[in-house]
C-alpha cells in the first residue's frame, strides 16, 4: 500500500491488561507498528493502560498516555 502523505499522526491503542498467553503478541505487534510509523516520519501517539509493556518505553512513541482504555480517555487525547 503506498504511503498517504496526508497522514501526519497516528493513534495506537495498546492491548491493555495482560492476559495469560496473549500479552507478548499484542505488545510485539504494537511496538513494531510504532517503530515503522516513526521511521516513515509519522507522529505516533500511544494510549495504553498497562505501563509494563515495551510499547510504553519513552523511545517507542512521540506521545504516551497511561490511561484506561475507555472511549472517554481516547476522546480526551
Describe the structure.
The chain is an alpha/beta fold. Helix 1 (23-39) links the parallel strand 1 (9-13) and strand 2 (43-48). The N and C termini lie far apart (28 Å). It has one domain (9-76): Rossmann fold (3-Layer(aba) Sandwich), CATH 3.40.50. The radius of gyration is 13 Å and the shape is globular. The protein has a 3-stranded parallel β-sheet, covered by helices on one side. It is built from 2 helices and 3 strands.
Question: Got a strand count?
Answer: 3
**How do the SSEs run, as a string of H and E?**
EHEEH
Overall number of domains: 1
CATH architecture: 3-Layer(aba) Sandwich
CATH topology: Rossmann fold
Identify low-pLDDT runs: none
Helix content: 25-40%
Question: Which terms would index this structure?
Answer:
single chain, 77 residues, alpha/beta, Rossmann fold, 19% strand
Topology:
Layout: E1 9-13, H1 23-39, E2 43-48, E3 63-66, H2 71-76
Parallel strand pairs: 1-2, 2-3
Summarize the structure.
By secondary structure, the protein is of the alpha/beta class. The chain contains two helices and three strands.
Amino acid at each position: 500500500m503506498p504511503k498517504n502523505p496526508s497522514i501526519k499522526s497516528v493513534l495506537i491503542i495498546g492491548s491493555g491488561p495482560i492476559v495469560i498467553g496473549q500479552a507478548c503478541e499484542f505488545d510485539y505487534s504494537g511496538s513494531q507498528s510504532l517503530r515503522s510509523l516513526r521511521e516513515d516520519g509519522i507522529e505516533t501517539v500511544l494510549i495504553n493502560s498497562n505501563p509494563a509493556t515495551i510499547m510504553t518505553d519513552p523511545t517507542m512513541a512521540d506521545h504516551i498516555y497511561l490511561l484506561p482504555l475507555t472511549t472517554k480517555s481516547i476522546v480526551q487525547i
